[in-house]
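Work package 3, deliverable 3.1, input record:
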Amino acid sequence: MATLEVKDLHVSIKEEKETREILKGVNLTMNTGEIHAIMGPNGTGKSTLSQTIMGNGAYHVTQGDVLLNGESILGMPVDERARKGLFLAMQYPAEIQGVTNAEFLRAAINARRPEDDQISVMAFLKELDKNLSLLDMSEQMTERYLNEGFSGGEKKRNEILQLLMIKPSFALLDEIDSGLDIDALQVVSKGVNSLRGDNFGSLIITHYQRLLNYIVPDVVHVMMDGRIVKSGDADLAKKLEKEGYAGLRDELGLKVSLVDDNR
Amino acid sequence: MISAVQDYEAIKTAVETAANEHGEPHWFVERRLAAIDAMQDLALPEMKRYDFHRWPLMDNMELNFRRSDKSLADGLPKAKNQIRFVQVGQTTVAVDLPDELADQGVILTDIFSAFREHPRLTEKYFMEKVTNYKENKLTAYQQAFLNAGVFLYVPKGVEIKRPIEAYLIQDSTVKQPMVSHVLIIAEENSQFSFIQHLNTKGDEANAAHCMVEVLSRANSHVHFSSVDELGEHTYSFLHRRANLSRNARFDWAIGIVNDQNTLGDITSELIGEGAHSESKVIAVTTGKQSNGINNRVVNRGKHTTANISQRGVLLEKSELIFNGIGNIIHGASGANAEQENRVLMMSDHAHGDANPILLIDEDDVIAGHAASVGQVDQNQLYYLMSRGIDKELAQRLVIRGFLGPVLEEIPLPEVRQEMIDVIERKLEDGQHFN
């Protein structure tokens, strides 16, 4: 079993004139075998949390720690964190011309293997075919350049394809449902669910409860203003859908502005 | 460089003797001698914002012919149905031209055989229509000391499906400059692509002068690509020019991945109405090498289109200057000339520049330019690294993406892969020292 712990995490970003604190003390512990969902209004730091765990240089940890299996990962570069078992399905995946999807996937798999034990072409293609068919993707997608000219839905599917090929211990899914129609949402959910098991954990970031009908979480956390303000089981998400974030805020007596500031 | 007191008469006598012993036709020997005369007064070509005056490009003023060891060409890829020309030093190793093309009048042969066997074509076109020895000291040197090369003639209406490949291998196991010439004549309505591979074998310090001149007749359609991979002891001058007649289409896709200083000069002259040229160049520089590249398009005819796209990557302490020169001549109404010059700096110690130079003497035209000197895209790098790919490989993949628009243009997948491999190797070497 692997464990991911976030302890009293404070994170700032530098803006033009000043430094702004986004995370103000986040605590979270998850194990493989569990699916956690983080919900919350715009601008409360959900994406910041996932980017900070992954190691995006734009986010500065000012206090607290992130531990993977008891070891602090904050000093590690992004690629090392990934090889240790973390994966972030991004909201806005980069496009890279000249590098085919297949080539990229092989490089990512081989990065986890010793130089004298790289994956064979046959084994790679077999695994690729299996996952393509699970995600209803055409073989042609793998010969296209990485995310280049992909539609929003294709990009999301491609993130999940990578997830299936790489098989990390923990997958952070940042708004994987945004911009997906209902069919694509089902396909993406099927992909994530196929990994469920003792060796896989996921932290799902979403605005909407809808995704959680397909990927049923074990734990739901609600974030507001840089903190987790409430945790519960899957029913919490349903309650939120009914009452909105404002209802919860008032119930908890929080003084938090919920104006959508698009951050 | 040439000292002021070179004994030109002695040089002429020696060149004349060597050329006659080589069995060259009288007209060509005369041209060599005229070029030596002209050299004395001509200046080096002008290259804006770039200094190459101290390079050892013309230290050797001798003409020698010797056999090279054919085994230096061993290991070249050989595909079925390949149309190819292989030359090591001055020695032609292979000419593979299918009979049906020869029957249609296609000529593929070494340049000196062409002088003897096809004087009607070569005397008229060799450095007469497209380039000229009187342009500058280096073009005169080319004509005076020419010692290698290839001639391709494609008659009217002939379409060649498979690209024609020329492997021109510099023999630097001996002390001797490579002065090589590719002369291509594309007659009306002909259609083909040509791929040049430049390599060096051996460790002697030698200059390489590689000229390409292409005459693209009306309605012809020609694609020229080159993988330039000259060695670390080779200072080179790569001079390439195409003249386009009415409605001709001619494209360059050139990868300059040499290991020593390179002066590149690429020109498309759009003479006939409606001619169109896409001129794409990529360059990668490492170590302390310096590359200066002029990419010039000249719109002379009405409704001509000429676009430049250049992309360069700099590592270590190298220097790379791209000049994109768009020249629209008075009377070329309806001309269109766009250019894009971009360089990517992978090191704080490198020096790169991308200069768009527009010289426009006509009102009714569309012209534009974009230039940038930048760093590797951090978002792309982060994305690749977040999948566990280490920083160096991630950088190389991002660079490949940056060079993609030119790599795309290379017509044979295996040659495209060769270019990618050469670039990867060079990037890896450069990264280890950064």
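The CA atoms of residues 227 and 363 of chain B lie 38 Å apart.
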